[in-house]
Amino acid sequence: MPEGGIVADESVSFGRGFYKETHAAPPHDWLHITGGAIGCGMPLATGAAIGAGGQRRVINLQADGSAMYTLQALWTQARERLPVTTIILSNRKYQILIGEYQNVGANPGPTAMSMLDLSNPDIDWLRRPAAWVWRRPAPPRWSNAPTCWRSPAPSRRRS
Ligand SMILES: Cc1ncc(C[n+]2csc(CCOP(=O)(O)OP(=O)(O)O)c2C)c(N)n1
User: Fold this and answer.
1) What is the pTM of this model?
2) Of 23, 56, 136, 158, which has the highest C-beta tally within 10 A?
């Protein structure tokens, strides 16, 4: 974690163990979702990066189901060249709701479980939404040229 980093946390059930791992990290800010409605993590990361004038690295800890509500924010991040690193916690489930069934002692059947399953079809995060993500190419080994930033080549439109 770089000093002055900002964590935009919509990690939902998966990310509860992150706090203790950052105990000795350099000073940083940690933004949580408000609770209630899911889907605010990626827009939160986008807004944080804009608010920091693009000068601070934003790390978005992002549960996959919640990400599906607002993943167009990735496109905005690419368009605005924002310094956001997105970590998708891809458990392919609405895991926290499975936990809620357990909390009330319910025994969900296959129909209920299929409603909480995100694997059919599988969300291929590396091939689809990540096509919008902009990457910093490695500088050529033979020079000290400053690293340049570029967006991915536009995809060919199908007729
Ligand atoms: C707008 C909105 N729709 C639906 C819900 C109900 N809901 C609460 S948690 C959740 C699933 C979250 O799944 P995911 O983001 O994948 O995190 P995980 O539980 O797997 O850690 C849903 C659908 C909600 N809170 N807000």
Assistant:
1) 0.84
2) 56
